[in-house]
TrEMBL record:
Family matches, as InterPro entries: cNMP-bd_dom, cNMP-bd_dom_sf, Env_Response_Regulators, HTH_CRP, RmlC-like_jellyroll, Tscrpt_reg_HTH_Crp-type_CS, WH-like_DNA-bd_sf, WH_DNA-bd_sf
Organism superkingdom: Bacteria
Keyword entries, A-Z: Activator, DNA-binding, Transcription, Transcription regulation
Domain Cyclic nucleotide-binding: 12-113
Record's keyword annotation contains DNA-binding: yes
Protein name: Crp/Fnr family transcriptional regulator
Entry-linked Pfam families: cNMP_binding, HTH_Crp_2
Ranges of residues in domain HTH crp-type: 144-218
UniProt-listed Gene3D superfamilies: Jelly Rolls, Winged helix-like DNA-binding domain superfamily/Winged helix DNA-binding domain
Lineage, broadest ranks: Bacteria, Bacillati, Bacillota, Bacilli, Bacillales
PROSITE patterns per UniProt: CNMP_BINDING_3, HTH_CRP_1, HTH_CRP_2
KW NAD (keyword) present: no
Source species of the chain: Bacillus seohaeanensis
Amino acid sequence: MLAKAYNNDTKLMSDNLRQLLISIGRKRKIRKNTYLFQEGMDAKEIYLVQSGLIQIGKLTPDGKELSLRICKKDDLVGELTLFSDESKYMLSALALDDCDIITINKTTLEQELAYNNALTFEYMKWMSVHLRKTQSKIRDLLLNGKKGALYSTLIRLSNSYGVKQDDGLLIDIVLTNQELANFVASARESVNRMLSDLKKQKVISLNDTGKIIIHKIDFLRMEIGCENCPIEICNID
């Protein structure tokens, strides 16, 4: 069971907006390792996650997979297509677990928001936060290189899934080195070497279940010139 982010009490989506999405949607189950949608498909629906994890990613021009988000309960997926005519999904959504989701017809939601200015404003604010998060992740990758992108990914994971322990922060989610590499758009072998170096410096370690413990998070922040972005921006969701 995943832990709640240890220092994130920010509630980005209001109850009113959540209830609207649930009221006009329909429940659906998605099996693990199944795509909810893939890049280039016609975008006719958006999705509200009820349980499980959905990975949002994109193929780079050289064929590497770049992971941008891991969506969990109460996160929206496919939201960037709203209010766009004949839109297509710009990213792909892969179920990392068996998931329960709410499927919402895009046209229906657009009509509902058109008649409710307050909820439209809330939706726009929510969208703005997620665009800022995506921009900050791309900035980390472009400005800090592969190593900096890995360090920032570990920081973001700690903000989303970190659990305080006596010896540091446990990232309460299991990710393979290949999955971490996807967040950096790098080869697994490169990530293996970088993680090994961090272990030698006692910055991180692994527990018996393969979960990462960060012992020196200030080291990671210093290495990338961390700007101490708000928690709602600096996370992996």
